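Need tokens for this chain, all 497 residues.
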Amino acid sequence: MKKFTIIVISLFMVLLISLSSVGEAMGTSSKYASNQDYIQSENLALKDKSNKMTDGKDSSVYRFKTRNGGEAVIDLGESCDFNTIILKEKGLNVQKFSISVSDDNESFTQIYANDKIEFHRLCTFDTVKARYVKLTVEESDNLPKIREVEIYNAIPEKKNDFRVSAYSTLGGSVFDIIDDTTLSDTEKDTKIKDLIDADYYDTVTDYIDIGNVRWEEDGSITITGWDGTEHDEEKYYGVMMRNLHEVLDEKGVNLVITILNPSGENGNQRVMKSITKNRDTLITNMIAFCNKYEFDGIDLDWEFPMSQDEFDAYNSFLQELKARMKDEMWNKEESTLSLALGTWALKYTPETIECIDYVNVMGYDILDQDGQHSSFFSSCVQAADYIESQGFSKQQINIGFPFYGTWEGGRMEQYAYNAITEEISPFNNFYTMKKYDTQEDRYTYFNSQAIIRDKTAYAYLKGYGGVMIFSQYCDLPSDDERSLTKAISDYLQEVTK
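Here are the structure tokens for all 497 residues:
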């Protein structure tokens, strides 16, 4: 996980969800199976035999008449209910498109808009009833070529175990509150509860505290701020955990602690020493910390084991940690062990994978061709596909969403979604939101409600275990209609009602 700049203002498919064929993204080596049953309905677009966009064949291509795009209308033959459209593009030419519907082929109402198709695009929206569907390519780098348009009335299977894991970075703010000598204990508790924003956790299933608990090479546990300053454990966690339990226990939210690896110079060497020579001490301290504050699980964030020796040691450590958690954690068999994973080399053994309850896939800081760090295809579809290819099951995978923006080109200074309130239109239809910095002559890219909704739909319909938020603290308040958590919640309420 990354450190980022948080500016709080008072008041942030591409999958080839194809049902009929095996698709291959142009310019990639990844292939995705298409025989999934998550959409329990027919492809309504097949009723229109008038063009190659609706013939059910990925090998045929519908070419728009001009370089800049244009319009193409699909006639379903009669008025039908539908809520999901899959677009398949040859190449990466489409830069902006919209979908509209009509019953008379004259008066159309827009139901969806996006910046690009990116090979394959999953478009979800509230169920509409219409006969005609119009695809409008508004901007294109070259002649748009559409392989297929698939239209479904998706009826997803209700899932009561779908996870929404949210990393929280409250640490610095809580430190400030607790250290404020002008506040009474009651006032401190009130301010901390306000930071938690309980209404978020009507949707969030796992609260993951990150950034403050670190293991050291001698196996000890330290409490530090982002700047490395050490803090008193009891003073901080005693107060914060009391408030977290009061707010979240009644909602049934799991409280998980992320224990970070040592950072700084020779970090991997220090990790190796702790998980080999001082493993027993480290595990004992981890479990003791969890038992003291009644954490339900442990999340580990060692993102860069590189050599085979490092992976061998880490595999052994994880297996032993899980075994001892089952024997020594206060909640034993119900305790969870999770990992934060990036999309680079992973060498976890089948035995280790079996002992991991879930993984939080960091679907961000992955640059696409435009310099954006969390596009749909690269950061959602391909990221999850890679983790699955390494042996993890779909049920173990949470697909991660950034609630922060990053400069174009991937510079690592990051800004919270809640810092750009003036740029956010309610229910923004477009994936890419940009905040322009005139001094630096650059954009900062943010995910919108639209892409968060579609990423959630992708994870749900594809059969993944859940989604992950990084970080909850970057979102707008839960009662703000522009909240990103609201986009997740609204979709899940639709499919589980």
